[in-house]
Design a protein that fits this description.
The protein is mainly beta and 117 residues long. It is built from one helix and twelve strands; from the N terminus they run αββββββββββββ. The chain has one domain: Lipocalin (Beta Barrel), CATH 2.40.128.
């Protein structure tokens, strides 16, 4: 999965688990940097903007679209856990949210990635 897509998934999951809210920068520990985003995610509706790539990441009902890559991303949240599928790379992902900390396991990379959202 593209690093920014993974960060946007982490930000989206964190907001949906928290019951909604506005998104700001997400810290990506694997890249040791902040990824600047804005927008909101609540009640299954997502509308985020990725300033790094200059594109939207939005959708509803678990069906999201990454306009920077031109591909769909599915995301299902269940309690503090989430899972989904990146149609651009053809790989599943899963993760957990603990407050503002988010861990994403990318099956395509066979690795965990951690974020502060």
């Amino acid at each position: 999965m593209h690093p920014n897509t993974r960060a946007l998934v982490a930000a989206t999951a964190a907001r949906l688990v928290a019951g909604g809210g506005n998104a700001g920068a997400v810290y990506d520990y694997s890249q040791s940097r902040h990824i600047q985003i804005s927008g909101s995610a609540s009640d299954g509706n997502v509308s985020l903007y990725d300033y790094d790539r200059g594109c939207h990441f939005s959708g509803s009902g678990g069906s999201l679209y990454d306009y920077g890559r031109g591909c769909h991303v599915s995301l299902q949240v269940n309690g503090t856990s989430f899972s989904g599928y990146d149609y651009g790379d053809g790989h599943h992902f899963s993760g957990t949210v603990n407050g503002s900390s988010v861990s994403v396991y990318d099956y395509g990379e066979s690795s965990h990635f951690n974020y502060s959202a």
